[in-house]
Amino acid sequence: MLGHTRVTVRDGGPADAVGGVVPRWVALPESLEEVSVVLGACADGGLAVTPAGGRTKLCWAAPPERLDVLLDLSAMHEVLEHVAGDLVVRVQAGITTARLAEVLAKSGQELALDVPFPGATIGGTLAAPSPGPRAYRYGNARDLLLGVTVVLADGTIARAGGKVVKNVAGYDLGKLFTGSYGTLGVIAEATFRLHPLPADRRWLTFGCEGWEDAGALLRSQLEPSAVEIDHPAEGLTTVAALFEGSAAGDRAEAAREVLGGGEVHADAPSWWGRPPGLPLASLRCRVAPHVPEGVSVRGSLATGVYLASGVTDLDAWRSRLPADARLVGLAGDFTGDRWGPIPSLPLMRRVKERFDPERRMSPGRLAGGV
Amino acid sequence: MTVFDRLEAIFPPDRVITDPVRLRTYECDGLTYHRATPMVVVLPETAAEVAAVVKACAEFGVPFVARGSGTGLSGGALPRSDGVLIVTSRMRRILSVDLDRRQAVVEPGVTNLAITEAVRDQGYYYAPDPSSQQICSIGGNVAENSGGAHCLKYGFTVNHVQALEIVTPDGEIVEISEDDFGYDLLGAFVGSEGTLGIATKITVRLMRAPEAVTTLLAAFETIEAGGQAVSSIVGAGILPAAIEMMDALAIEAAEAAVSCGYPADAGAVLIVELDGPTPDVESQLAEVIAICVATGSFEQRVAASAEERAKIWKGRKSAFAAVGRISPAYIVQDGVVPRTCLGEVLAGIDALQTEFGIRVANVFHAGDGNLHPLVLFDDTAPGEGERAEVVSGRILDLCILHGGSITGEHGVGVDKARYMPRMFTDADLDTMQRVRCAFDPGGRSNPGKVFPTPRLCGEVPRVRKGSPGEIF
């Protein structure tokens, strides 16, 4: 404990590194006010800060150009408000998605986000979103987010949105901060829309030759919650579709007929929602993509959002993809441009300048030094 | 050289309007009690023309306002008498439809319904369905983040737009997409009410039409009983496509206007629409009917055909206009409360009616707590308009008090900017202003909307030098 602030601070070590950059200190605030105090002090001292939660994706995106303070939010893990009748929950950003799921399950509810890493926090799930199978049905983190409390680089506490599912008052800062990788400020609290846990779930899995085979499912009216593909570097490609609801079994059987084969299971296949290994890249492509030799791809045929591993030369792969596809190196070593084209980068840079003119918040974690 | 000269160089004469009589056509949007005659109106046909106008505005320091079909209910498209009104009504091409990608790319002047009409025969549709969908433009929907009755299940415009081409307030043409790695600028732009630039190309998600759709009308003696049914439906884990409620006064108005034939003597009616795969819809319908009966519904009607479904919806969709039959004037309010507070807030609105002697008809998207109280008054009776205005404002206070919002779907616009400080702190508003300054440092894009007081952007602050504080 240092100073009158009572915020716990310790020296940083190799285990605290962000993409190989070791912070001088680690601060462990326990409240929104303490986050503000720490950031205010960092502003006074010109210190560079990177927020962290479950640390499951600190190796994603680029390492910070400099890092003095790792702001560890893991002590902020409270459910602040859960009104089951409203299907809304407000939490501190450091709560893990697994812990939140436990709490909500007691009321028969869930935050309908599939998070690939156990231990990931809500803050990290917003700041560094990862694709999940059921995004097709429920949307991504940004779609389920209703309100947010952020702390800016100068310690300012600001809120946007609210705790009702329908609200268009003011700019949606929550969405702006989604995907920000700690470069705009710190997400301290968040409010989400919840869904009732489905009465039943069934997975239909089938091996296939080409990616197009699953198209019939997407053209059907069976409303799968997710349609995922597992395309390993070697071996058979598998497609799996999830059906949710009281008639899940009937719909999975109907889907089997549409496809002319496959197996219906009560449990997800082992690869469901799990990222392939390093080096890891994010692929967004709305049509069946070309996949190079030695590359494995997993993700949603329904949304066109995938994770890929085994790719070494990003530029070479990019040149074989449609112009509107996006391939970004998330974690590991790559050759070629890590980011690829980002047409809105000049606007992102202007937003960064307004939120963090001193470039102290995770500087350089995103493209173009943002 | 003036801005007029520049505009006349950009456009042929028939697409620059300066005639005072014709200008008055554009003096208001759907919120008719705010009016201003624009200095000049232009009718661009391409993004390049929009960019050229915006650049001219930058050069001459003139503000601009974009307008689609002018159906907005918060004065978001209210012109500036010292500014250019950029009307997108000539940008109405559907540029592409790609069902393999389940996407359509359209220009901003295309109407909401035209997108669905273009793909309906193939079994697809565009989900957000504001009541004005026959005429409202998709560009306006993007600006306002429009909802509609079915957003309970399917979400709002922001959940269905995948990419935008925008003209920034500097006049640059930029693409922002959900696929861009980094900040969700798309999410920030949708719903920014024209203050961050003008969308000139919109990529929307198309959805497969549901296999089955069924609509139930349930009548209750009291609005409380109807509210209880809503809570029980949601509590049972059912997510209908829409749950709408109308109170006795709204029913009376709808009956007078369109003879919708809702059960007589109902204190409230619920419209519940379920859609999805047939087996799910059938089991959920049985469950919903059982819940309505258990909570005191005395009559339930299930639409047996598309015509019957349309008839049930007719009363609800005509409700706003219908109150014109029972009141000389009215204010359409748009507030949101947590669903569990509906009862308390309705009791509060009731108390306001008694206190001020002003009638309020209630129409609402009950499933998501979005109230549309229609505050009725006689504009010829001295003082009644003012009292109605007070009641309208007090309803918003009730919403805020219960943790809700001052607008669920109509937007802040010019109408509610003054209420923003009741919902947000100065720090909140200043932080939003940083976004505004990043996009529009000159404050030329739809100024005077959303935010209560104009704030200057100033220069980006310079790097501070100091010593570490006492924590470190």
Automatic annotation (TrEMBL), chain A:
Domain of life where this protein originates: Bacteria
GO molecular-function terms, A-Z: catalytic activity; FAD binding
FAD-binding PCMH-type domain sequence ranges: 18-197
Cell membrane is among the record's keywords: no
Keyword Flavoprotein among record annotations: yes
Pfam family, one: FAD_binding_4
InterPro entries linked to this entry: FAD-bd_PCMH, FAD-bd_PCMH-like_sf, FAD-bd_PCMH_sub2, FAD-linked_Oxase-like_C, Oxid_FAD_bind_N
Record keywords, A-Z: FAD, Flavoprotein
Entry protein name: FAD-binding protein
Organism of provenance: Herbidospora solisilvae
Automatic annotation (TrEMBL), chain B:
Entries under InterPro entries matching the protein: FAD-bd_oxidored_4_C, FAD-bd_PCMH, FAD-bd_PCMH-like_sf, FAD-bd_PCMH_sub1, FAD-bd_PCMH_sub2, FAD-linked_Oxase-like_C, FAD-linked_OxidoTrans_Type4, Oxid_FAD_bind_N
Gene3D superfamilies: 3.30.465.10, 3.30.70.2190, 3.30.70.2740, Uridine Diphospho-n-acetylenolpyruvylglucosamine Reductase, domain 2, Vanillyl-alcohol Oxidase, Chain A, domain 4
PROSITE patterns, per the entry: FAD_PCMH (PS51387)
Keywords for this protein: FAD, Flavoprotein, Oxidoreductase
GO molecular-function terms, A-Z: FAD binding; oxidoreductase activity
Cofactor needs: FAD
Parts forming coiled coils: none
Domain FAD-binding PCMH-type: 34-209
Protein name from the UniProt record: FAD-binding protein
The species this protein was found in: Herbidospora solisilvae
